[in-house]
Design brief:
Elements lengths: L1 H21 L7 E5 L3 H6 L17 E3 L34 E2 L5 E8 L5 E8 L21 E4 L8 E7 L7 E10 L4 E10 L1
Parallel strand pairs: 3-9
Antiparallel strand pairs: 1-4, 2-9, 4-7, 5-6, 5-8, 8-9
């Protein structure tokens, strides 16, 4: 009888381990929620048909060095991850957009599940004439970030707000790409936020 009970407990332990191993992970790292990013819209279930990113909005991690390196054009919003390809799908330009004002002060907010040693945060915006019905490319972005916040290896707070100014001379629909560059790995985190100036 003790042998059967032990075997049953081992079997239950294996099933529990399998369930844990196949559950979505949520151990890392960060995303923007102001202006709200595509991955957070998926996690909130504001947008449907998002795939696995809905369970791990903090996991859009890719190679650092953007724009010279990093995710390929058309795969930037997903950080180059094919399993998060829904973030690169422009959905006909119909992603919900945050209303913002050109040239106005703004608080860009990140939420972290792991606040890594950080090189910097950079914020890019699309050029005037950008087509929101196409996946994001480097050519669609202004060549320089409109806001850079250096950290020099420091760790951000678990909720961090970067006060900056929205780019001037913008009207209509645009996208803001936020890039969080990690100091002690080869990676960065990417977040695309659709905005309406």
């Amino acid at each position: 009888m003790p042998g059967r009970a032990g075997a049953a407990l081992v079997g239950l332990g294996c099933l529990a381990g399998l369930a844990f191993a196949t559950a979505p992970t949520a151990s890392s790292h960060g995303y923007t929620d102001t202006p709200i990013s595509r991955q957070k819209l998926c996690a909130n279930r504001t947008v449907a048909d998002c795939g696995p990113i809905q369970w791990e909005p903090q996991s859009v991690e890719g190679l650092k060095g953007f724009p010279a390196a990093g995710p390929a054009d058309g795969r930037i919003c997903a950080g180059g991850h094919s399993e998060f390809a829904q973030l690169d799908d422009p959905r006909g330009g119909a992603w919900p957009a945050t209303r913002v004002t050109s040239g106005q002060s703004y608080g860009f907010r990140w939420q972290f599940t792991a606040n890594h040693s950080t090189t910097d945060f950079k914020y890019y915006v699309t050029k005037n004439g950008w087509d929101p019905t196409k996946p994001l490319t480097r050519a669609a972005l202004e060549s320089q970030p409109f806001l850079t916040v250096a950290y020099n290896g420091a760790r951000p707070a678990m909720t961090t707000v970067h006060q900056g100014t929205m780019p001037s001379g913008k009207t209509g629909r645009h996208m803001i790409l936020a890039v969080w560059t990690i100091n002690d790995t080869q990676n960065a985190f990417y977040a695309c936020s659709d905005v309406e100036f």
